[in-house]
């Protein structure tokens, strides 16, 4: 994509150009030309919408970090979540929690700051390093999330449809998770190469920068950009969801046939089948949440690249809320575990009870220290500078 127009990367990097649309300028390849606010096609976000969005975004960051820390602690302290009997599914969910926590810690604050100020911190010229890393990190986290869910679904698929086959060992599961993150990183690597900072001159605003993609001159650059867009949509959204849907359909058929075959008879595997169904329900909710929260971003992205989205006056506002949906998905996952999974629910309760005990001990210690200090200073010491105290001493 050329430097003369705002650029959009796939899915999670679309935010880099929405702010460019807000700060849109008419520029030459060498000399930027200042523009006025009247020449902008984008309509600024209403102040109430801005306030509500910022407050909710900050709340989501707090809940995201707290919830995903609970997930990591639950997997670390509960052996059942890491057992072969449960297909090590706690490790896959821990990988997903790390990706979600990275979104809350690194992506959300920088994206919000860039949206509202037009530049990145921690560097000169709008911080080129952050411009390259944050969009790439967003794509890495997105890829790790959907690939972890896909791998976990296939693990459960093998356990239900082919129960007699050998399950993966812990070493192979760790290797699979490593490949998940490696493939997600490779998919996001072009963002580090093509993203760069472009300074813009806007009347009444100093030091405005846009983080844009530079794929080269058209038509080759346009073909590369659109090809990368299509690749990310297929590889990190459409194809995983198709694989997951086929796997769930097959698992549902197998479980229904087993229920019909065992109808009217007691079976020692009833608890196992119930656990299968509960876990499948959890995965379905997680994947539906992922699909719905990421869908607006993909739709807007294709509308921008293949349609007339850049000419729509409310396009930037819609993109901001599409990113809000992505952050919401990262926040929801740990609380869905607690609501739908018994192991996580018990682990959460233990962690909260432990925190309550620590808080109770801290309160008791504080009260004890307060009582001791009040006893020490409850009797006033006579002062030689106080005439009343002198009279009392003489009497």
TrEMBL record:
<feature type="transmembrane region" description="Helical">
    <location>
        <begin position="321"/>
        <end position="340"/>
    </location>
</feature>
<keyword id="KW-0472">Membrane</keyword>
<keyword id="KW-0675">Receptor</keyword>
<feature type="transmembrane region" description="Helical">
    <location>
        <begin position="228"/>
        <end position="248"/>
    </location>
</feature>
<dbReference type="Pfam" id="PF00001">
    <property type="entry name" value="7tm_1"/>
</dbReference>
<dbReference type="InterPro" id="IPR017452">
    <property type="entry name" value="GPCR_Rhodpsn_7TM"/>
</dbReference>
<keyword id="KW-0807">Transducer</keyword>
<feature type="transmembrane region" description="Helical">
    <location>
        <begin position="133"/>
        <end position="154"/>
    </location>
</feature>
<feature type="transmembrane region" description="Helical">
    <location>
        <begin position="279"/>
        <end position="301"/>
    </location>
</feature>
<feature type="transmembrane region" description="Helical">
    <location>
        <begin position="50"/>
        <end position="75"/>
    </location>
</feature>
<feature type="transmembrane region" description="Helical">
    <location>
        <begin position="175"/>
        <end position="194"/>
    </location>
</feature>
<feature type="transmembrane region" description="Helical">
    <location>
        <begin position="87"/>
        <end position="113"/>
    </location>
</feature>
<keyword id="KW-0297">G-protein coupled receptor</keyword>
<keyword id="KW-0812">Transmembrane</keyword>
<protein>
    <recommendedName>
        <fullName>G-protein coupled receptors family 1 profile domain-containing protein</fullName>
    </recommendedName>
</protein>
<feature type="domain" description="G-protein coupled receptors family 1 profile">
    <location>
        <begin position="67"/>
        <end position="337"/>
    </location>
</feature>
<dbReference type="InterPro" id="IPR000276">
    <property type="entry name" value="GPCR_Rhodpsn"/>
</dbReference>
<keyword id="KW-1133">Transmembrane helix</keyword>
């Amino acid at each position: 994509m050329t430097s003369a127009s705002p650029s959009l990367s796939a899915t999670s990097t679309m935010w880099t150009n929405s702010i460019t649309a807000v700060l849109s300028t008419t520029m030459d390849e060498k000399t930027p030309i200042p523009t006025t606010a009247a020449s902008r096609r984008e309509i600024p976000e209403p102040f109430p919408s801005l306030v509500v969005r910022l407050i909710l975004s900050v709340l989501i960051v707090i809940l995201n970090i707290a919830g995903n820390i609970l997930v990591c602690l639950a997997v670390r302290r509960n052996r059942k979540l890491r057992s072969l009997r449960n297909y090590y599914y706690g490790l896959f969910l821990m990988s997903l929690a790390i990706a979600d926590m990275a979104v809350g810690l690194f992506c959300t604050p920088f994206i919000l700051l860039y949206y509202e100020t037009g530049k990145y911190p921690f560097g000169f010229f709008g911080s080129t390093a952050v411009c390259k890393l944050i969009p790439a990190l967003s794509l890495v986290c997105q890829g790790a999330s959907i690939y972890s869910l896909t791998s976990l679904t296939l693990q459960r698929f093998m356990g239900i449809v082919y129960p007699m086959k050998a399950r993966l060992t812990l070493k192979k599961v760790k290797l699979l998770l490593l490949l998940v993150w490696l493939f997600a990183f490779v998919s996001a690597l072009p963002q580090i190469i093509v993203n760069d900072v472009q300074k813009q001159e806007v009347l009444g605003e100093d030091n405005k920068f846009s983080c844009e993609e530079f794929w080269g001159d058209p038509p080759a650059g346009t073909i590369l950009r659109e090809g990368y867009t299509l690749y990310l949509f297929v590889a990190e959204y459409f194809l995983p969801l198709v694989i997951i849907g086929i796997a769930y359909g097959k698992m549902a058929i197998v479980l229904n046939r087993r229920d019909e075959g065992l109808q009217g008879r007691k079976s020692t595997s009833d608890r196992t089948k119930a656990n299968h169904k509960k876990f499948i329900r959890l995965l379905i909710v997680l994947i539906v949440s992922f699909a719905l929260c990421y869908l607006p971003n993909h739709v807007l992205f294709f509308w921008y690249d293949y349609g007339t989205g850049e000419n729509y006056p409310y396009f930037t506002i819609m993109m901001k809320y599409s990113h809000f949906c992505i952050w919401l998905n990262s926040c929801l996952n740990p609380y869905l575990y607690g609501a739908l999974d018994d192991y996580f629910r018990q682990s959460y309760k233990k962690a909260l009870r432990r925190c309550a005990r620590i808080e109770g001990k801290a309160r008791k210690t504080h009260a004890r220290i307060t009582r001791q200090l009040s006893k020490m200073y409850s009797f006033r010491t006579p002062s030689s500078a106080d005439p009343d105290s002198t009279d009392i001493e003489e009497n």
